[in-house]
Design a protein that fits this description.
The chain contains seven helices and no strands. The protein is 74% helix and 0% strand. It has two domains: 78 residues; 170 residues, no CATH class. By secondary structure, it is mainly α.
Amino acid sequence: MKPRITLRLTLLALALALCTARPLLASGMPVFDGGNLANNQVMHLETITQWVNSIAQLKAQIEQLKTQVSIQSDLRAWAGDPAKAAQRLALDILNEPDLTREYGRARDSIARNADSLGILTNDDYGVFRNTDVPGLDGGAIAHDPTLYRRYTVLDDRQQNARAVADATRDRIQELQQEIALTLADLKTASTDAEVQKQNGKLAVLNGQLAQLENTRRREVDEVILQQIANDSRHDEEQVAAAELRANDDHIASQRMTTFVRTLNPYKPRN
């Protein structure tokens, strides 16, 4: 509103100046071109008005940008910097060797390296009786290794399951302590990035716990499967032995019958 009023006042002043200049023109005195001067001033005022409007729009845009920057700064202060939060993530307990660590002996290795006759003297710290005893003559018995190999493999799998259980027990305690510390850090997290960081760490720790538990169960399953295989094989051998005895009895009976028939008490002797 103010630029328009100023423009009108300027035009009115110019009109009055033109009226005053007419008598001077009639008298022959040199005068200026008032109309051209007024037109130039009007154009100059319009240009200034446009600049004023442009400056006002620029100020409004600057204020809007300041507001956006302030909002982004507030969001960053609340959410935190994910990159910096990730850099501060302490994963010393989850190094690559720990994540790829294997516990116990391989299944095939136990079967290949089983000491077949070692089971006779293994009393498991006094739990079992020593079965490698001498005979009636006091001499050592020549045992057949193939008869005891299955029991040796089963015993080795049991020992391996115990070793895995002991090793994973220590590791589980370490992970549980780290989970407790992480939960404490989660409670005191001040930004969303910190919360996400701690939640991610908890997910990894819980995944490690699940992996260790699966490892322990897998070793126990190996023992159970070996026991099932031994029992199944024992039953199979019992059936095979029964068939062998029946077949031998049949052959022996046939041979006895044939031999008896060769005996003739009435046959004259030479």
